[in-house]
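Justification of resources, computational component.

The compute hours requested in this renewal are based largely on the per-chain cost of generating structure records like the one below. Each record pairs the submitted sequence with a full C-alpha coordinate output. That output is archived, and it is also reused by downstream analysis tasks.
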Amino acid sequence: MDESVFQHRFIVRLHDTDAAGRLFFGHLFHHAQDAFEAFMAQLGWPIPELIQRGEYLLPVVHAEADYRRPIQHGELIWVEIWVEEIGRRSFTLGYRFRKKDGEESARAKTVHVLVSTVGDQVPALPEKLHLALVSHLKDAGARASCDPAHRDTQS
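The structure output for this chain reads:
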Protein backbone atom coordinates (compact mmCIF):
# COMPACT_ATOMS: atom_id res chain seq x y z
CA MET A 1 0.00 0.00 0.00
CA ASP A 2 1.06 3.60 -0.66
CA GLU A 3 2.91 5.02 2.39
CA SER A 4 1.04 8.31 2.04
CA VAL A 5 -2.26 6.54 2.86
CA PHE A 6 -3.36 6.30 6.49
CA GLN A 7 -5.70 3.45 7.52
CA HIS A 8 -8.47 3.44 10.08
CA ARG A 9 -10.98 0.64 10.61
CA PHE A 10 -14.38 0.14 12.18
CA ILE A 11 -17.12 -2.46 12.50
CA VAL A 12 -20.56 -1.43 11.29
CA ARG A 13 -22.83 -1.36 14.34
CA LEU A 14 -26.58 -1.81 14.38
CA HIS A 15 -27.11 1.89 15.16
CA ASP A 16 -25.20 2.73 11.93
CA THR A 17 -27.73 0.96 9.73
CA ASP A 18 -31.07 1.70 8.13
CA ALA A 19 -34.13 -0.57 8.13
CA ALA A 20 -32.53 -2.76 5.43
CA GLY A 21 -29.49 -3.45 7.65
CA ARG A 22 -27.16 -1.36 5.49
CA LEU A 23 -25.01 1.58 6.50
CA PHE A 24 -27.26 4.64 6.55
CA PHE A 25 -25.79 7.07 3.99
CA GLY A 26 -25.22 9.92 6.45
CA HIS A 27 -23.27 7.68 8.79
CA LEU A 28 -20.51 7.39 6.20
CA PHE A 29 -19.51 10.92 7.23
CA HIS A 30 -19.57 9.89 10.90
CA HIS A 31 -16.93 7.26 10.09
CA ALA A 32 -15.01 9.66 7.85
CA GLN A 33 -14.84 12.05 10.83
CA ASP A 34 -13.56 9.27 13.08
CA ALA A 35 -10.88 8.46 10.48
CA PHE A 36 -10.02 12.18 10.21
CA GLU A 37 -9.56 12.45 13.99
CA ALA A 38 -7.34 9.33 14.07
CA PHE A 39 -5.35 10.70 11.11
CA MET A 40 -4.83 14.09 12.75
CA ALA A 41 -3.74 12.45 16.03
CA GLN A 42 -1.23 10.34 14.10
CA LEU A 43 0.11 13.56 12.52
CA GLY A 44 0.58 15.05 15.99
CA TRP A 45 -2.42 17.39 15.72
CA PRO A 46 -5.10 15.76 17.92
CA ILE A 47 -8.44 17.48 17.43
CA PRO A 48 -9.37 17.49 21.17
CA GLU A 49 -6.16 19.43 21.92
CA LEU A 50 -6.83 21.93 19.10
CA ILE A 51 -10.30 22.54 20.51
CA GLN A 52 -9.03 22.82 24.11
CA ARG A 53 -6.29 25.30 23.15
CA GLY A 54 -8.96 27.36 21.45
CA GLU A 55 -6.67 29.13 18.98
CA TYR A 56 -7.62 27.32 15.75
CA LEU A 57 -10.43 25.19 14.37
CA LEU A 58 -10.52 23.02 11.22
CA PRO A 59 -14.18 22.95 10.18
CA VAL A 60 -15.40 21.05 7.13
CA VAL A 61 -16.52 23.51 4.45
CA HIS A 62 -17.33 20.90 1.80
CA ALA A 63 -18.14 17.19 1.91
CA GLU A 64 -19.17 14.69 -0.74
CA ALA A 65 -19.53 10.93 -1.06
CA ASP A 66 -20.09 8.25 -3.68
CA TYR A 67 -21.53 4.88 -2.75
CA ARG A 68 -20.44 1.86 -4.78
CA ARG A 69 -21.51 -1.24 -2.79
CA PRO A 70 -23.75 -1.76 0.24
CA ILE A 71 -22.04 -1.84 3.61
CA GLN A 72 -23.81 -4.21 6.01
CA HIS A 73 -24.22 -4.50 9.76
CA GLY A 74 -21.29 -6.40 11.32
CA GLU A 75 -18.82 -5.85 8.49
CA LEU A 76 -15.26 -4.77 9.17
CA ILE A 77 -14.45 -1.73 7.05
CA TRP A 78 -11.06 -0.18 6.38
CA VAL A 79 -11.04 3.55 5.75
CA GLU A 80 -8.05 4.75 3.77
CA ILE A 81 -7.38 8.46 4.07
CA TRP A 82 -4.93 10.66 2.19
CA VAL A 83 -4.33 14.31 1.39
CA GLU A 84 -5.52 15.33 -2.07
CA GLU A 85 -4.62 19.01 -1.98
CA ILE A 86 -3.09 21.60 0.34
CA GLY A 87 -3.75 25.31 0.12
CA ARG A 88 -2.45 28.25 2.13
CA ARG A 89 -5.10 27.74 4.83
CA SER A 90 -7.05 24.69 3.68
CA PHE A 91 -6.61 21.04 2.77
CA THR A 92 -8.67 18.37 1.04
CA LEU A 93 -8.79 14.78 2.24
CA GLY A 94 -9.84 11.73 0.27
CA TYR A 95 -11.36 8.64 1.86
CA ARG A 96 -11.85 5.14 0.48
CA PHE A 97 -14.03 2.63 2.33
CA ARG A 98 -13.02 -0.99 1.66
CA LYS A 99 -14.39 -4.31 2.81
CA LYS A 100 -12.38 -7.36 3.89
CA ASP A 101 -12.24 -8.55 0.26
CA GLY A 102 -10.54 -5.28 -0.73
CA GLU A 103 -13.45 -4.09 -2.87
CA GLU A 104 -14.24 -0.39 -2.65
CA SER A 105 -17.64 0.28 -1.10
CA ALA A 106 -17.58 4.07 -0.98
CA ARG A 107 -15.46 7.17 -1.43
CA ALA A 108 -15.70 10.51 0.31
CA LYS A 109 -13.96 13.85 0.30
CA THR A 110 -13.80 16.63 2.89
CA VAL A 111 -12.33 20.11 2.64
CA HIS A 112 -11.10 21.67 5.89
CA VAL A 113 -10.25 25.35 6.40
CA LEU A 114 -8.13 26.71 9.23
CA VAL A 115 -10.10 29.31 11.19
CA SER A 116 -8.70 31.47 13.95
CA THR A 117 -10.86 31.87 17.02
CA VAL A 118 -8.84 34.93 18.05
CA GLY A 119 -9.82 38.10 16.18
CA ASP A 120 -10.46 38.44 12.47
CA GLN A 121 -7.09 37.25 11.25
CA VAL A 122 -6.97 34.76 8.39
CA PRO A 123 -4.13 32.42 9.33
CA ALA A 124 -2.07 30.17 7.08
CA LEU A 125 -1.71 26.52 8.05
CA PRO A 126 1.01 26.25 10.70
CA GLU A 127 4.29 25.12 9.13
CA LYS A 128 4.43 21.86 11.12
CA LEU A 129 0.88 20.93 10.11
CA HIS A 130 1.60 21.81 6.47
CA LEU A 131 4.68 19.56 6.45
CA ALA A 132 2.81 16.70 8.14
CA LEU A 133 0.05 16.95 5.53
CA VAL A 134 2.56 17.04 2.65
CA SER A 135 3.87 13.65 3.76
CA HIS A 136 0.39 12.21 3.08
CA LEU A 137 -0.20 13.75 -0.34
CA LYS A 138 -1.16 10.85 -2.54
CA ASP A 139 0.22 12.36 -5.74
CA ALA A 140 4.03 12.66 -5.72
CA GLY A 141 3.84 15.50 -8.25
CA ALA A 142 1.53 17.44 -5.97
CA ARG A 143 3.92 16.73 -3.09
CA ALA A 144 6.74 18.43 -4.98
CA SER A 145 4.56 21.46 -5.76
CA CYS A 146 3.54 21.96 -2.11
CA ASP A 147 6.82 23.50 -1.09
CA PRO A 148 6.02 25.97 1.73
CA ALA A 149 7.62 28.74 -0.32
CA HIS A 150 4.77 28.40 -2.85
CA ARG A 151 1.95 28.46 -0.31
CA ASP A 152 1.10 32.11 -0.89
CA THR A 153 -0.43 31.27 -4.28
CA GLN A 154 -2.78 28.58 -2.95
CA SER A 155 -6.08 29.16 -1.18
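The beta strands are 6-11, 56-57, 60-67, 76-86, 90-98, 104-113, 115-116. Residues 27-43 form the longest helix (17 residues).
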